[in-house]
Backbone:
């Protein structure tokens, strides 16, 4: 854009005459109007097809949705079987180590608790002087 066009006549188009600019504006407005009319006709066509969907005959004016929209998860499970296994196997050293450590602490505490609440545990506590 040239600044001189805006200063000289207020036209954004620069060196284009105002008559040409007016013709371009009318053409653009006509295109917008034509597109608007087309979209209204399309809505009416689809709307009438949906309104008459009780009949068993398919509406030839409405072609339906694409195959990509009908099956959005096609192949998702098949892809996860192989890729998911590979991803889980890569994380196993990290998550497996934490799980093993947690289970070891749980097993130790559970065994110690059972022993301390048994007869042998009470006798040991009395010998050591830690019985309550």
Residues:
């Amino acid at each position: 854009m040239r600044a001189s066009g805006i200063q000289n006549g207020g036209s954004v188009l620069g060196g284009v005459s105002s008559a040409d600019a007016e013709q371009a504006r009318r053409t653009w407005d006509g295109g917008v109007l034509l597109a608007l009319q087309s979209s209204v006709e399309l809505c009416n066509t689809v709307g009438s097809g949906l309104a008459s969907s009780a009949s068993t005959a398919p509406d030839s004016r409405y072609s339906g949705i694409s195959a990509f929209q009908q099956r959005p998860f096609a192949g998702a499970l098949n892809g996860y079987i192989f890729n998911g296994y590979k991803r889980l196997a890569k994380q196993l050293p990290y998550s497996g180590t934490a799980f093993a450590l947690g289970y070891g602490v749980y097993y130790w505490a559970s065994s110690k608790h059972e022993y301390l609440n048994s007869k042998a545990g009470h006798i040991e506590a009395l010998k050591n002087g830690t019985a309550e």
